[in-house]
Design goal:
With about 475 residues, the protein is α/β, with parallel strands linked by helices. It has 16 helices and 19 strands. The structure holds 5'-deoxyadenosine (5AD) and iron/sulfur cluster. Iron/sulfur cluster binds next to helix 9.
Length: about 475
């Protein structure tokens, strides 16, 4: 039996029971307690080195960085490039495709020739969704830890060293953010998670189950963490959340107030946020794009599909018209804004004509860049059992057509930038001698040569455009 079915009898949040009775629930409430660790392994020396492998979204990248900092605080060092680590954390993603199967093959690949393996922790959304099942299927895994519980890794590692295996997929009341060590060293562009979880329950999506209900981190904590990121080298901060624009503090202040407070940090040059839901795109936040210079002219606002029947079946609670009306307002506030989105093709029941509506919407909006995916049935979500599952070859063809249309849009956006002068944040060296890579305000990758350093903000003239990047000349 799958772990999620077993857990229906466990503590299931009323919210989910009310909405989808009989659906599986991933919000398991097992915790790492010595009494609960079922199996024992051989004891092992404490790990001296670690490697964290993060898959999926930017939130996972952020969580991976925080886990790395936590391990470093425990005196565990990053494994040198090319060398095996004593402890491997697989920070997994469950949003699409056969995520769980991929994890099992990754675990298999960690096995050494003599049959032994490093200490393995499975973290992230697959850990949350699969829980104990991972322990059963993968005997070499010592720790399974969900996205809300990874601050407890040190205790789990201590257990593992003693030979005890543990699962912690709790969504505790204490927040990991209060326990994690302070940020020390970051690159010029840093992530800051301000909001987690989702209450929107789109019918195809696992996030409300794996990440839990929407929570917003407190205003002052975020301003403090942002200041520390800036002290540690960040010039740009991207605020992260599964529904980042749903961020509210206890007093009801919206994301624009937080952005305003961060904009007052003198050495912070740029602020971005992702990912947003159309229903939380308030007039206040739209006005921030007009009023706050440090807020970059870029908006990732997924629409998912261009047909209202499909949007309704997805439980998106917006229509194409209401989505377009928001974009009109955003463009009125910030005419040069670059727009981005996510699309799913082949949602159950999507007809050819409904898919064509998505292509029309893309042509109408003129996106700067987008992500597009084939629908992937996620066990336990309502869409997984809907009639009219679309065959893979149809999805393949639709995805190809959509991506061709999106590419045309992206190239047009990049070409329209030629001749513009803009500030580029230098992020790293390019492949070629003397070449540097950075980002324009519109999140385009720009390469150029010249005497600069990582973290500099330099003025560049954009001279050539490809589909995925532009070349520039230092002014
Ligand atoms: N199948 C395909 N794409 C999905 N996404 C979320 N769930 C699924 C799924 N089951 C996409 C959505 C979302 C992005 C992060 O991933 O487009 O915006
Ligand atoms: Fe998933 Fe985003 Fe819908 Fe939430 S709003 S359920 S995270 S697709």
């Amino acid at each position: 039996m799958r772990s999620c079915e077993r857990l229906l009898d466990d503590v299931v949040p009323d919210l989910i029971r009310d909405r989808w009775p009989n659906k599986c629930d991933f919000r398991q409430r097992s915790r790492a307690k010595p009494g609960m660790t079922k199996d024992t392994m051989h004891s092992t020396p404490p790990p001296r080195t670690y490697r964290v492998k993060s898959f999926g979204c930017q939130m996972n990248v952020y969580d991976g960085e925080r886990m790395a900092e936590l391990l470093a605080q425990q005196g565990i060092a990053p494994a040198p490039e090319g060398e095996e680590a004593d402890l491997v954390v697989l920070n997994t993603c469950h949003i699409r495709e056969k995520a769980a199967e991929k994890v099992y093959s990754d675990i298999g690949r960690l096995r050494r020739e003599d049959g032994t393996a490093p200490l393995i922790a499975v973290a992230g959304c697959v850990a949350q969704a699969e829980g104990e099942e991972i322990m059963t299927r993968a005997p070499s895994v010592s720790m399974v830890v969900g996205p809300q519980a990874y601050h407890r890794l040190p205790a789990m590692i201590a257990d593992a060293v003693e030979g005890r295996r543990s699962v912690d997929t709790d969504m505790p009341t204490e927040t990991k953010f209060d326990v994690l060590p302070a940020r020390r060293k970051v690159g010029p562009s840093a992530f800051l998670t301000v909001q987690e979880g989702c209450d929107k329950f789109c019918t195809y999506c696992v996030v409300p189950y794996t990440r839990g209900a929407e929570i917003s981190r407190p205003f002052n904590d975020l301003v403090e963490e942002a200041k520390r990121l800036v002290d540690a080298g960040a010039r740009e901060i991207t605020l992260l959340g599964q529904n980042v624009n749903a961020w509210r503090d206890a007093g009801g202040r919206g994301l624009e107030r937080l952005i305003e407070a961060l904009a007052a940090i003198p050495a912070l040059a740029r602020i971005r946020y992702t990912t947003s839901h159309p229903n939380d795109m308030t007039d206040g936040l739209i006005a921030a794009h007009r009023d706050i210079e440090k807020l970059m002219p870029f908006l990732h606002l997924p629409v998912q599909a261009g047909n209202d029947r499909v949007l309704k079946a997805m439980n998106r609670s917006h229509t194409t018209a209401s989505y377009l009306a928001i974009l009109d307002k955003v463009r009125a506030a910030r005419p040069d804004i670059a727009l981005s989105g996510d699309f799913i093709v082949g949602f159950p029941g999507e007809t050819d004509a409904e898919f064509e509506d998505t292509l029309k919407l893309v042509e109408q909006v003129g996106y700067a860049q987008c992500f597009s995916f084939k629908y992937s049935a996620r066990p336990g979500t309502p869409a997984a059992t809907m009639d009219g599952q679309v065959p893979l070859d149809v999805m393949d063809e639709r995805l190809q057509r959509l991506q061709t249309t999106l590419n045309v849009s992206q190239i047009a956006f990049n070409r329209a930038s030629i001749g513009k002068r803009c500030v580029v944040l230098v992020e790293r060296r390019g492949k070629h001698e003397g070449q540097w890579l950075g980002k324009s305000p519109w999140l385009q990758s720009v390469h150029f040569t010249g005497e600069v350093a990582i973290g500099d903000l330099v003025e560049v003239e954009l001279v050539e455009a490809g589909p995925n990047s532009l070349s520039g000349q230092l002014v």
